[in-house]
Amino acid sequence: MRLVQVAQRAEDLERATTFYAQLLGAAPRATYDPPGLVFFDLDGVRLLLERGAPSALLYLAVDDIDAAVQRLRAAGAPIRSEPHMIFAHADDALGPAGTQEWQAAVEDSEGNLVVLVEQRPAG
Predict the structure, then answer these.
(1) Angstrom distance (rounded) from CA 80 to CA 106
(2) Is the domain defined by 1-55 classed in CATH 3.10.180.10?
(3) H-helix or E-strand spanning residue 87
(4) Which residues lie below 8 Å from residue 75, measured CB to CB, with a gap of 6+?
(5) Residue 72 burial by CB count (10 A; 0-12/13-18/19+): exposed, middle or buried?
(6) Any idea where the domains of the chain sit in the sequence?
(7) Distance between CA 85 and CA 39 in Å, rounded?
(8) What pLDDT digit, counting tens, does each position of 28-82 carry?
(9) What 3-state DSSP class applies to 69?
């Protein structure tokens, strides 16, 4: 089994589309309005922005968490948690062995929480 799609609440579809296009660095793959659906591709998993969907807590991998937070802050996104180390991976159970998992939380344009995740070499 694999994850196919995640839906995220978007009260203002245009505003949410702008936010996620900037965050993901990619344009939507498809837009259907009406009824109010926008699809992004997350490495084979669809992110659906939908009016009326419940809020989802998204964890998105980034290459450079500090740069991502700085870029989002400059764009006016509220930063709810600054980059910090969550866990050091001694084995491959939840991440690459020998790395540290860093996370930061930002609020999207619709008030949903999005967590950014970076795997950094330990040391």
Answers:
(1) 5
(2) yes
(3) strand 79-89
(4) 22
(5) buried
(6) 1-55, 57-123
(7) 31
(8) 999 998 899 999 999 999 999 999 999 999 999 999 999 999 999 999 999 999 9
(9) helix
